[in-house]
Structure formats: C-alpha cells, structure tokens
Amino acid sequence: MRPTTPLQNFFVSELLKHLVGCAASMSRYESDDQLSQYLLFHYGSEEETLGDMPGPRAGLNFPRRCVSELIGPMGRDSRALDVGCSVGRSTFELARYAAEVIGVDFSKNFIKAAQNLKKAGEIEATTVVEGELSATFRAKVPVGIECERVSFEVGDAMNLRSDLGGFDAVLAANLICRLSEPKRFLERAPQLVKPGGQFLLSTPFSWLEEFTPRANWLGSGGQRSFDVIKEILNPHFELQTTKEMPFLIREHERKFQYGISFGSRWLRRGA
C-alpha cells in the first residue's frame, strides 16, 4: 500500500472532524432537552413562554405564522409538504389549507412527538424554569385541525424519498442554514413543487460550521445569501412576496434565543 502524504493526512483529518461535528450537531436534536424546548416553541402559549417577563412578543407563534403569513390561495384537493417540520406545528397549520400534508424531519425524537400529538391530540411536556427546576405544560394540536389529513415521517431534506410526488405547497422554515448542503435541497425544489404551486421559505441565514461547511454557505465575498437563493430558484420560480419574521425560543425563564427570519413565497413557473 502506498504511504499517504502529509497533505492527504491533513484532508482526511479535516474530513473526520467535519463528519464528527455534523453527527454531534444532528444528535443535539435527539435530546429530551431540545424536544422540550421545541415543543414549547411550537405549542406554548404566550403565558407559558414569557409569563410576566418583558420580551419581544412579536416572536411568538413563529411556526404558525410561517404558514399563515406566507401562504397564498390553495385549492381544495391540494397537497403540502413541510420539510424540517420539527415537532409539527406548521404541518398541522398547513392542514387548514391542504387536503393532505406530510411533515418530514431528520430527528426521530421530534417525529415521534409529532406522531403522538396526532394520535392523542395532546402530550405533556416540560419547560425549564431555572437550574433543575422545571414546569409542565400540555402541547396540543391546534383547534380546528383535521388530523387525518396529516402524516409525519423521518427523512433527510437533502435526500428526500423519490416517490413523494409533487406538492401544491412546500414549506421549509428555518431549515437551510441547518443543512450541510443547502444548495442541494434548493435545487430539488422544482421537482417537489408542482407548476403553479408555492415554495415557502424562511431562514435567519445563521451559518455555522457545525452544521454547514463554510464552502457550502450560500453567499460569500460580499454576496448576500438571498441573492444566491434567487440565482438558484429564478429559473423555475417567481418571487411573489418577502416578509421579516421574528422568532423567540425559550431556553429557561430568563434566557431566550431571538432571531429574525427572512420569509419568502415563490410561485412555481409553468402553470
């Protein structure tokens, strides 16, 4: 066997570091702490999330608003896909507009919780108050949702199963900057969205090497990420609207993650 050179050893070492980092990043969404945090993010009330604390209330109900504030008119027999659905709130909300909705997420723990919600209508979850002190709340399917329209499955946004078919609406909320190859997912969008259908995208462009190798970040050298998205989508989609969309994730009673996602709705050409 031919001995490896120092340069080859370096590249192998860097690749292994990246793979280990990606595995650690993905496993974080399998933890019970993350599950509780995202159940509150998706289903918690204003009182359960903020209580009497001062805070940016405009960031509440983000998963619901990603649907209600971005989606356009839909036909009665429409199909919708929620990629990166997490624990499922936006998937349930899409069922207000579509006859069939599929929610897909890489986290088995998140999907199991969403499936339990569909089955039982509500589940008990916890939220951290401080230290080891916690409180319980009930995560509930929103009123008026026909759960039989909704299904959930584990899947990889960059390698979705080939027999999913086409959809009248595809939602990807706060997803692309958590993918190792966001361009690969965006290039699949024309195959997922039917002509005349909608592609709903929101992202805070929070690029981190623990999720996405720097070489795969959208935008560099002074180019904005959304400009790159437009270059990828413009041949197949028409940009219809954009919207600033704040979101608030509670870590404990006095600590929150606040961000502003950039929302957009794209119409698939060829109708």
Report on this model:
It is built from eight helices and nine strands. It has helices at 6-27, 32-43, 46-49, 62-68, 89-94, 108-120, 182-192, 225-233; strands at residues 79-83, 100-105, 122-130, 133-140, 150-154, 167-173, 193-203, 237-252, 255-268. The strands form two sheets. It has a seven-stranded mixed sheet with strand order 5-2-1-6-7-9-8. The chain has a two-stranded antiparallel ribbon with strand order 3-4. The longest helix is centred in the first third of the chain and has 22 residues, at 6-27. The radius of gyration is 19 Å and the shape is globular. The protein starts with 5 loop residues before the first helix and ends with a strand.
Search tags:
single chain; alpha/beta; Rossmann fold; two-stranded antiparallel sheet; 9 strands
Layout of secondary structure:
Elements: H1 6-27, H2 32-43, H3 46-49, H4 62-68, E1 79-83, H5 89-94, E2 100-105, H6 108-120, E3 122-130, E4 133-140, E5 150-154, E6 167-173, H7 182-192, E7 193-203, H8 225-233, E8 237-252, E9 255-268
Parallel strand pairs: 1-2, 1-6, 2-5, 6-7
Antiparallel strand pairs: 3-4, 7-9, 8-9
Mean pLDDT: 91
Total domain units: 1
Give the helix tally.
8
Specify the biggest β-sheet.
Answer: 7 strands, mixed
Beta-strand percentage range: 25-35%
Q: CATH first level: which class?
A: Alpha Beta
Low-confidence stretches: 10-25
Radius of gyration (Å): 19 Å
Provide the structure class: alpha/beta
What is the CA–CA distance across the termini? 57 Å
Q: Secondary-structure element order, as H and E? A: HHHHEHEHEEEEHEHEE
**Could you name the CATH homologous superfamily?**
Vaccinia Virus protein VP39
CATH architecture label name: 3-Layer(aba) Sandwich
Strand arrangement across the biggest beta sheet: 5-2-1-6-7-9-8
DSSP E strands, number: 9
* Inertia-based shape: globular
Tell me roughly what share of residues is in helical segments. 25-40%
**CATH third-level topology:** Rossmann fold
